[in-house]
Amino acid sequence: MHKHLLALSALLLAVPATASAQRYDARYGLEPGAHDEIAWDFLEGITTEVGPRLAGTEDEARGRAWAIEWLRERGFANVVDEPFMHNTWVRGEERARVTGRYAQPLVLTALGYSGATPAEGITAEVVHLASIDALRAVPDGSLAGKIAYIGHAMRATQDGSHYGYFGSPRRQGPGIAAQKGAAAILIRSIGTDTDRLPHTGATSWPDGTVPIPAAALSNPDADNLERMLERGETVSIDLVLTPQFLGMTPSGNVTGEIIGSDPSLPPVLLACHLDSWDTGTGAIDDASGCAIAAAAALRVAQEGQPLRTIRVLFAGAEETGLWGSAAYSAAHADEKIGVGLESDFGAGLIWRLEANFARSNPGLFQQLANAVTPYGVVPAPQILATGGADLNIVRDQGGPIIDLQQDGSRYFDLHHTANDTLDKVDPAELAQNVAVWTAVANVLANEPGDIAGPGIIAGE
Amino acid sequence: MHKHLLALSALLLAVPATASAQRYDARYGLEPGAHDEIAWDFLEGITTEVGPRLAGTEDEARGRAWAIEWLRERGFANVVDEPFMHNTWVRGEERARVTGRYAQPLVLTALGYSGATPAEGITAEVVHLASIDALRAVPDGSLAGKIAYIGHAMRATQDGSHYGYFGSPRRQGPGIAAQKGAAAILIRSIGTDTDRLPHTGATSWPDGTVPIPAAALSNPDADNLERMLERGETVSIDLVLTPQFLGMTPSGNVTGEIIGSDPSLPPVLLACHLDSWDTGTGAIDDASGCAIAAAAALRVAQEGQPLRTIRVLFAGAEETGLWGSAAYSAAHADEKIGVGLESDFGAGLIWRLEANFARSNPGLFQQLANAVTPYGVVPAPQILATGGADLNIVRDQGGPIIDLQQDGSRYFDLHHTANDTLDKVDPAELAQNVAVWTAVANVLANEPGDIAGPGIIAGE
């Protein structure tokens, strides 16, 4: 919060520098010492003063209250919290120990919406499955009383695109294992680090499936378990997981606006999500995104009132299944959005500009390209932007979307772990994000014509 | 164990590579693909099949039994387990949560020999002390009912020499805080990483001091707590730590020998420690050291029977206060050791040769220098080797000591954390260690004369 800026400026010197000096680099259009005070104030503030913001909990509500105060103090108009109801799940005890000859503890964490073991736990034999496809292939009932283990290791990619395939053991694996009769399922973390910090994340259960205990091992623990399994003897595990379903509890979407001079024009929507997993403080996922979106809106306003209204949407309950994004779309389906952008991939450098209107409105796409190339961002007119989790409303309307692709090479080292904390954000990279978003939002908010252009949006 | 070598060789391909290709480098005297099968077999085996080996526990005893079997199968003679008694401490529950306005959990771990809170915990205000010197300076009684917090952050150094000064908040801080009436003490982890994995380690209590609860915060949690404290309001913490003192339980020292052809010559002692903290699997601290020492002894024997006996000492209960090293010295005080070396600083590349007889026996020191320079190791005759924790017997005898300094630039990222696991060891760096130790042990074990030489050992 800005009242703490004096203390904050002293503190900044003490923040451990993950930034190396060469990141302040002309290649990214940044001056030496580049720093965005507004974005950093949001990010530092909410991670320090609120911390974790698990969907549907009091912690998430505190996050909304904090964000509302921040937006109002910074000068946003029409700041509101739109409530919706959410199926809330909270973590309990979680521990595992190999029994028998290789007896030792394994570090794991329950997946969101995991079922529970009895308080005293279960002991069961581990069945090693090399991939989600191997799990799909086992006969029904063959896992009865067993713990299914999927060990497929994810690789790092700059655009994060492997998350789709390699995330399937987490998203679909537990449901499939339950249908095949497994007592529980363990997966190797969907992550690219070698820290003993497992990666949580939501799983989903097919209709009629009773949730079974489901957890992720850290990568080093998955390695160790696989070494034991490779020795050829039966490996059993004592497993305790006691999460709870709390039923429907309130969550909410926070919005705020920089009012444009022509209220007849549909607004520019800058989206992110405010909830986080409970394990970290949600610095990269996704306080950074909200910091970038809000700072960009304010930076545009600093240059003069824009033509269009700029609206920020801090969605609630994204991590547990895009609940806020869906609720926002349902509540505002008839209010046309001019164009939507989302930041939900950390604070790595933006490297690529994508849109879904590059062919329908090439002139505007070229304007945007001219605005971002000074920051090391290259337009990719051949790639169709689809937006992220928090842009349901724009997708549902078939509207214009822009993706400002961030470098996610190391994002999945931290994603959904306890390590998602403030020190992992490079202030200079955050500043580059704000600079790019400001440049793009400035063009969009001052565009009088239809952003989709005279042609047809690709993908419609 | 060697019976698993077939499975092991297949597995090696799957081990996450922390090694980058350029580490297989002519600068270190290594061929491409350099790998020491003996050392890796020990290291992979004990971390996979035994795991953590906390001093005085059944886990440590399983580690000794495993090591004895390994040494005998590999052909060591006179393999024995020499028992001693040890004041044993085990971890309990450990959690902390900031109360009030900035409410959120903090990640911490109890220091070895920490006192306990009641099961329901304590709630107390935090007093921020910038350093161990600031703690020493506060008036007696001024910390009554408070939680002292020391935040001094350690820097990485290649030779690890900052561990002395920066480790003092852990070693002496709790005793000083207790004497000044504190209800508990928290310290910033003695570590150089930014992971949410706190660093444990033993503390010591002055005579007559009742242990208070004492724990280390991870570096990101220490950062976060300091940001809260900087805001100027009172910060209180709910703290639960329930470790237990088990009293005196058995530990032991494992030794084994490669028999030399001249039993009248004092042996070459290659030392390490077999116990580890309970948080990790003790891969770098110190299964690597035992793997290096044992592999070097076997590599010397492969070249023919040496003149002197080579003895390996796998000390017990090092982490909790060098109990095994002291017991070994007391039991064998009158049996002269020819020369002692220790490996207890991970498996980083060896970069410097030091001895305490460079001036008393310059000819032998030159021979050793000639043996190690091909591996990128440079002699430092001006530095006086003092040996490490497991060489009490040689220091007590005033005997010859060699230090083969390893690169510890990143050692304190992992030291005493859950992250001390097999994947953190680079097989090529481990192989360089074995190559250097083999070269040095070969010279020493075939030296007929007094290793101290005709002169006086420096420091005597």
From TrEMBL, chains A, B:
It comes from the Bacteria. It comes from Aurantiacibacter marinus. The keyword S-adenosyl-L-methionine does not apply. The lineage of its organism: Bacteria, Pseudomonadati, Pseudomonadota, Alphaproteobacteria, Sphingomonadales. GO terms for biological process: proteolysis. GO terms for molecular function: carboxypeptidase activity; metal ion binding; metallodipeptidase activity. Keywords: Carboxypeptidase, Endoplasmic reticulum, Glycoprotein, Golgi apparatus, Hydrolase, Lysosome, Metal-binding, Metalloprotease, Protease, Secreted, Signal, Zinc, Zymogen. One of its GO terms (cellular component) is extracellular region. SUPFAM superfamilies: Zn-dependent exopeptidases (SSF53187). Homodimer. The monomeric form is inactive while the homodimer is active. Pfam families: Peptidase_M28. Gene3D superfamilies: 3.50.30.30, Zn peptidases. This is Carboxypeptidase Q. Residues 1-21 form the signal peptide. Residues 253-439 form the Peptidase M28 domain. InterPro entries: CPQ, Peptidase_M28. It is found in: Endoplasmic reticulum; Golgi apparatus; Lysosome; Secreted.
